[in-house]
Amino acid sequence: MSMDISSHDEHLPPKKQKFYQILYVQVIFAIVLGILLGHFWPDIGASLKPLGDAFIKLVKMIIAPVIFLTVVTGISGMKHMGTVGRVTGKAMLYFITFSTLALIVGMIVANIIQPGHGLNIDPTTLKSDKVAEYAEKAHDASIVDFLMNILPTTILSPLTSGDILQVLFVAVLFGLSLAAVGEKGQPIVDFLNNLTAPVFHLVGMLMKFAPIGAFGAMAFTIGKYGIESIGNLLLLIMTFYITALLFILVILGAVARYNGFRITDLIRYIKDELWLVLGTSSSEAALPSLMRKMEKAGCEKSVVGLVVPTGYSFNLDGTNIYMTMAALFIAQACNIDLSIQDQVLLLLVAMLSSKGAAGVTGAGFITLAATLSVVPAVPVAGMALILGIDRFMSECRALTNLVGNACATIVVARWDNALDKDKLAAAFAHPPKSHYDEKAVEQHREDPMD
């Protein structure tokens, strides 16, 4: 059915979008307006937080159905059930390798540039009231609790709670069950395939509110914390952004080149999602449309459904760079000389804690608290130093995580011979003009809403 619609869409006369109709242009404009409003009228800017929160809630509303439908329809169409375990195994191998690399990169750069050197702060003078809240959450987010939380209370509860790994768990089991019963389950598979069309059209509808959400979120950030609040911590922010950029262009770029594509082409292809993440500081806001775009780029639906949601919990490259860099920044600011053994311990603990607190709101700060609470050499109270600027680094964490997961999806698909290279080349050569899928574009042409 989708093939017929796509072929019909190809025969429609091309319609060139005006620049102000392109989603990422609207989001950029909204971000700039939000910064200006937050800077010149901070009280008004700070009061606009509900706009950003409301948009993220709208997107989270649709995440569970998107993951469930993508995974179930993908797995139910597999001919060999061993494929699920094979794809998951390859994805986890990729995640562990590059998450560890991200931790090491953050540690190396922090040791070379030493952004915290010279602050000479006495850790006993640091206020730790808010930090204590994060430390308490981190204490609760142990590895065992994290693994137990993957198991849902009922088969339907993940669709209402929105926990990504619980949705993935139920979807994989249900997809395997449908594939096992064969023809008896085909009517359900057909129904779910048909249900995919309106669900993804709904995603396109929700994305129209992205500029409003980005405007509210950015106005709040600047109005609440102020551009000047960055102060002498600007070096840490710049170091983090540059490190993340180099990680994407050099390390992920080398992986992409080895697997037959360029990382810059991938970034251009998902530019809508990147601008959306920049405006909202939430990589979850782009999850539904990222999954759709990865399918359009030639990755099999089953691979997309397994790799992307899992990567949102296990492949947090940006968060990992931030963790080791922030920990060393605190040590340097407090004049704590960490030995090689201390730094190796920090690295090992971070490898575990980054998985234990995955998927928790504010995961970057919580995982840092979890790491420091185990490494006694660095005071947890030192997190108060970066609490004020954490919001300015959350955008970079989310952007890096998003690019890392998009890259992982294509690489794992290629490893599993589940990548259509012609579709990938065509998608990268002609990036989509808007955020909508083909069905949404076609309907929009026939019955424009604007």
From TrEMBL:
<keyword id="KW-0472">Membrane</keyword>
<feature type="transmembrane region" description="Helical">
    <location>
        <begin position="21"/>
        <end position="41"/>
    </location>
</feature>
<keyword id="KW-0769">Symport</keyword>
<dbReference type="InterPro" id="IPR018107">
    <property type="entry name" value="Na-dicarboxylate_symporter_CS"/>
</dbReference>
<dbReference type="Pfam" id="PF00375">
    <property type="entry name" value="SDF"/>
</dbReference>
<keyword id="KW-0812">Transmembrane</keyword>
<dbReference type="InterPro" id="IPR036458">
    <property type="entry name" value="Na:dicarbo_symporter_sf"/>
</dbReference>
<dbReference type="GO" id="GO:0070778">
    <property type="term" value="P:L-aspartate transmembrane transport"/>
</dbReference>
<feature type="transmembrane region" description="Helical">
    <location>
        <begin position="61"/>
        <end position="79"/>
    </location>
</feature>
<feature type="transmembrane region" description="Helical">
    <location>
        <begin position="91"/>
        <end position="113"/>
    </location>
</feature>
<feature type="transmembrane region" description="Helical">
    <location>
        <begin position="360"/>
        <end position="387"/>
    </location>
</feature>
<dbReference type="GO" id="GO:0005886">
    <property type="term" value="C:plasma membrane"/>
</dbReference>
<feature type="transmembrane region" description="Helical">
    <location>
        <begin position="233"/>
        <end position="256"/>
    </location>
</feature>
<dbReference type="InterPro" id="IPR023954">
    <property type="entry name" value="C4_dicarb_transport"/>
</dbReference>
<comment type="similarity">
    <text>Belongs to the dicarboxylate/amino acid:cation symporter (DAACS) (TC 2.A.23) family.</text>
</comment>
<comment type="function">
    <text>Responsible for the transport of dicarboxylates such as succinate, fumarate, and malate across the membrane.</text>
</comment>
<dbReference type="GO" id="GO:0015141">
    <property type="term" value="F:succinate transmembrane transporter activity"/>
</dbReference>
<keyword id="KW-0813">Transport</keyword>
<dbReference type="InterPro" id="IPR001991">
    <property type="entry name" value="Na-dicarboxylate_symporter"/>
</dbReference>
<protein>
    <recommendedName>
        <fullName>C4-dicarboxylate transport protein</fullName>
    </recommendedName>
</protein>
<feature type="transmembrane region" description="Helical">
    <location>
        <begin position="164"/>
        <end position="181"/>
    </location>
</feature>
<dbReference type="GO" id="GO:0015366">
    <property type="term" value="F:malate:proton symporter activity"/>
</dbReference>
<keyword id="KW-1133">Transmembrane helix</keyword>
<feature type="transmembrane region" description="Helical">
    <location>
        <begin position="202"/>
        <end position="227"/>
    </location>
</feature>
<keyword id="KW-1003">Cell membrane</keyword>
<dbReference type="GO" id="GO:0015138">
    <property type="term" value="F:fumarate transmembrane transporter activity"/>
</dbReference>
